[in-house]
Amino acid sequence: MEMDRMKYPFEASFAEIMANPDPFVSMIFSSLESEFLVLPKGHGFIEYPDFEKAYEALKRATCGFTTWDSAELAETVRKTPLCLIVLRTILGFTPPEWAYIATRRTGVAITQGFARALDRKIRMAPFSPLRLTKVTEQRLVALIETAVQLLLSPPLTAGSGELHRLEKADTKEGIYSVQSLAGLGVPYAMLLYERLLGRPFAGHRDSVSELVGDSLESAIEDILARAGISYRKTRRAEKIPGFDQAPDFIIPDEFNPQVVIEAKITEDDGTARDKITRIQHLASLSTRSGSDGILRFEVVACIAGRGFGVRREDIKKLILATRGKVFTLKTLDRLVDYTRLREFRVKK
Predict the structure, then answer these.
(1) Which residues fall within 8 angstroms of residue 21, CB to CB, at 6 or more apart?
(2) pLDDT band, very low/low/confident/very high, at 211 (cuts 50, 70, 90)
(3) Around Cβ 21, how many Cβ atoms within 10 Å?
(4) How far is C-alpha 72 from the geometric centre of its chain's CA atoms?
(5) Of 276, 282, 289, 301, which has the fewest beta carbons less than 10 angstroms from its beta carbon?
(6) How far is CA 110 from the centre of its chain?
(7) 7 burial via Cβ count (<10 Å: 0-12, 13-18, 19+)
(8) Closest-CA residue to 303 (of 21, 1, 10, 7)
(9) What is the dihedral of CA 244, 248, 252, 254, to 10 degrees?
(10) Cis before residue 252, ω within 30 degrees of 0?
């Protein structure tokens, strides 16, 4: 096949790429793989049987969602912490959103950091009774009181052209909606519609986004380690002298950068464009202060995900910015041989 006879951009000279970049774009497109159908569970993933157990505990504590007593709910949550996440799911809020509205309604200061930390603590030990200080108990009660207020409020309305966050099948009419769906079951069409609005697995996908990225970075680390190459892996938002945006990997280190690697995964084409722009910026830094056209360091891009396989012009920019040093999961095994990394290889 013609595709089999073509070169990847990292196998070609920069002059070949400049003369006709389109075939190299096609090669990158052909090697891109996506794992968007499979997500890592990550630490603190809540299995459905556990969620259902907490749901039933909350249902008993409210007498089938008919009696909403804040003190009784607080005690239930203390004994079975996962009930708090079930309650939050009914509201449809993120932990920071719940903290914000609870602060506004009760006057109790609940930081977003506290809300996230409490949510994670519960996920890690969903059935271990909570040990509360005076302050954390006050905040927990404020969250629960706010939830009760919202569910006991009159039916919600929004202005023309607006949609209220609680205008959902299970909260539109407050506790009556909750009782109805709990007793009769959810109409399938409405369930599908709410999934359309909320994106299936959106919250979990966001919570494990770093783990998804870690899979590519881990593969790169394994390749570098097996070749005996010294490298510096940067932390998120870390400040590195000489870089206004720290690359993911610096070889051999930030004091003498010779190769920098950016590892990027995205399933969204808009995000892909932003990540390509970041790599282009790194490429501009590599030529700055150089003499006689010699690069200060080589920029290598390792990409994955269907988001990169949408806009040909963006991939062309990426190939030109890195002078062809673009690798995918399919070609990652050639990372050392076709970059300056081979100069630092100790093991074969």
Answers:
(1) 316, 319, 320
(2) low
(3) 19
(4) 36
(5) 289
(6) 24
(7) middle
(8) 10
(9) 20
(10) yes
- pTM, to two decimals: 0.67
Instruction: Name residue 168's beta-bridge partners.
Output: none
Give yes or no for residue 290 having a pLDDT over 60: no
Residues 6+ apart with CB under 8 A from 1: none
Q: How far apart are CA 264 and CA 286, in angstroms?
A: 19
d(CA 70, CA 62): 10
Q: Tell me the C-alpha to C-alpha distance, in Å, between residue 118 and each of 132, 287, 334.
A: 11, 47, 44
Measured between its terminal Cα atoms, the distance across the chain in Å is 32
Cα 344 from chain centre = 33
Which pLDDT belongs to residue 309?
Answer: 83
Closest CA to 316 of 22, 15, 33, 10: 22
Looking up tokens 């909350």, which residue turns up? 58
Closest CA to 260 of 251, 269, 268, 271: 251
Taking residues 182-195, report their average pLDDT: 68
Mean pLDDT of 19-25: 93
Contacts for 205 with CB less than 8 Å, ≥ 6 apart: 39, 199
Interatomic CA distance for residues 91 and 51, integer angstroms: 15
The whole-angstrom separation of Cα 167 and Cα 134 is 34
Where does the pLDDT of residue 238 fall: very low under 50, low under 70, confident under 90, or very high at 90 and above?
Answer: confident
Residues 218, 222, 224, 230, CA torsion sign: positive
CB of 314 closer than 8 Å to CB of 339: no
